[in-house]
C-alpha cells in the first residue's frame, strides 16, 4: 500500500505514484460529486495544489462543472479555502455541503 502524504516531496514521476497521480487527475476531472474529508490543503503540498488547479482549469474550460462539493472538516476556514479554490469548477446549479466531521457526513 502506498500513501502520498501532504508535502512537497512526492515522487509522482515514478510508479506506483505516477499511475496513482494520473488516475486521481482523471477521476477529479470526470466526477459529478467531489467529497473532501479532513484535508486542509497545506501550503507545503505544492503538487496537490497544482493537481487541483489543473483539474479546476480543465473543468472550467470544458464547462464540466462539479454538481456537488462535500467538505468535512472541523475548521470553517479550511472549508472556505477549498470552496474559494473550486469556484471556477462550480456553476449556479452546483451545491456545496459543509460538515463538521466525517461522522456528520456519514449521517446523511
Description:
By secondary structure, the protein is of the alpha/beta class. The chain has a domain of 75 residues. 44% of the residues lie in helices and 14% in strands. It has 4 helices and 3 strands. The protein has a 3-stranded parallel β-sheet. Strand 2, helix 3 and strand 3 form a beta-alpha-beta unit. Helix 1 runs parallel beside helix 2. It is globular.
Mind sketching the topology for me?
Blueprint: H1 17-30, E1 33-37, H2 46-62, E2 68-72, H3 76-86, E3 95-99, H4 102-106
Parallel strand pairs: 1-2, 2-3
Average pLDDT: 90
**What is the 3D form?**
globular
Structural class of the secondary elements?
alpha/beta
Distance between the termini: 30 Å
Gyration radius from CA atoms, angstroms: 14 Å
The residue fraction in helices comes out at 40-55%
What fraction of the residues are assigned to beta strands by DSSP? 5-15%
Q: Count of helical segments?
A: 4
Number of strands: 3
Arrangement of strands in the largest sheet? 1-2-3
Low-confidence stretches: none
Order of helices and strands: HEHEHEH
Q: What's the story with the biggest beta sheet?
A: 3 strands, parallel
